[in-house]
Amino acid sequence: MSAVDVKALGRVAVLMGGSSAEREISLMSGAGVLQALLSQGVDAHAFDPAERELAELKHEGYARCFIALHGRHGEDGTVQGALELLGIPYTGSGVMASAIAMDKVMTKRIWLAEGLPTPRYVWLASDDQGAERVGRVSAELGLPLIVKPPREGSSIGVTKVVEAAQVGAAVALSAGYDADVLCEAFIEGEELTCPVLGEGAHAVALPVIRIVPPAAGYDYQNKYFTDEVQYLCPSGLSAELEREIQRITLASYRALGCRGWGRADLMLRAGDQQPFLLEMNTSPGMTGHSLVPMSARASGISYEALCLQLLAAARLDNPAPAPLSSAGG
What we know:
Layout: E1 11-15, H1 23-39, E2 43-47, H2 55-59, E3 64-67, H3 78-86, H4 95-102, H5 104-113, E4 121-124, H6 131-141, E5 145-148, E6 159-161, H7 167-175, E7 181-185, E8 189-197, E9 204-205, E10 209-212, H8 220-224, E11 230-232, H9 239-255, E12 261-269, E13 275-281, H10 291-298, H11 303-312
Parallel strand pairs: 1-2, 1-3
Antiparallel strand pairs: 4-7, 5-6, 5-7, 8-9, 8-10, 8-12, 10-11, 12-13
Helix pairs in contact: 1-11
Pfam families: Dala_Dala_lig_C, Dala_Dala_lig_N
Function: Cell wall formation.
InterPro entries: ATP-grasp (IPR011761), ATP_grasp_subdomain_1 (IPR013815), D-Ala_lig_Van_CS (IPR000291), D_ala_D_ala (IPR005905), Dala_Dala_lig_C (IPR011095), Dala_Dala_lig_N (IPR011127), PreATP-grasp_dom_sf (IPR016185)
């Protein structure tokens, strides 16, 4: 990575908190990013969109934003769109890629169209969750299966269903977080994650992390607030399998039009070592338990250097064109 001219970055807002169900995690991510940027001499400041109007970013002279928001109104293209209108460059994916990646159903449709492996699924729209329809899900996907909100993250509202009689309650729980519900075939095997940095042909997949959860599972509590989960990086997978996981991760990232950074979550099927893509995170966690910094460290990139690299790559999808000349012809 080439040296970054810190002064040229200008006044920087670290967007954190927000109004999604992942607010608590975002505050943790943002605090880490803010401290890292300050330690590198960046003129960085915390900014919580749940407490302040985004228009204040323009009024207060912010030159760019580091988006440390997670979930809706932070990772779904809405904040990105507002920053496009304000003309303030930001980290991570643009409006369209953010919006698509936030919706796991839309993401699956694109991946399947590209021939990328992802578990079979049933989408239950908000007006298609009657008892009869819900009752058919287990027959369509088999058991066990996973029920989750398609536009949430951090394992919020997710249920592993092992009996057909449990599907209704799982759908009701998920619908409390998102009007639509995603039911997905369960892949028995190991959990993996693979981060990506960069854009287009220059995007690079970082080392794969193998996640070994405790018996209680890789839930919200264990993901962020305990040390019960083991994260193996190097993954311990064969070099050939690691390269294949990195290949499909890069393909999945590019298919969605992501840029800056992202992190694919995958399952590795125990029976045949086939990887399956679950989702793409376009504003991954940056907490003490987070996985992108862990993988970056394994490839020689410190947390501070990672934050600086992401900030330096901040840009707009559609910068405003130069004003037309007013000279007469």
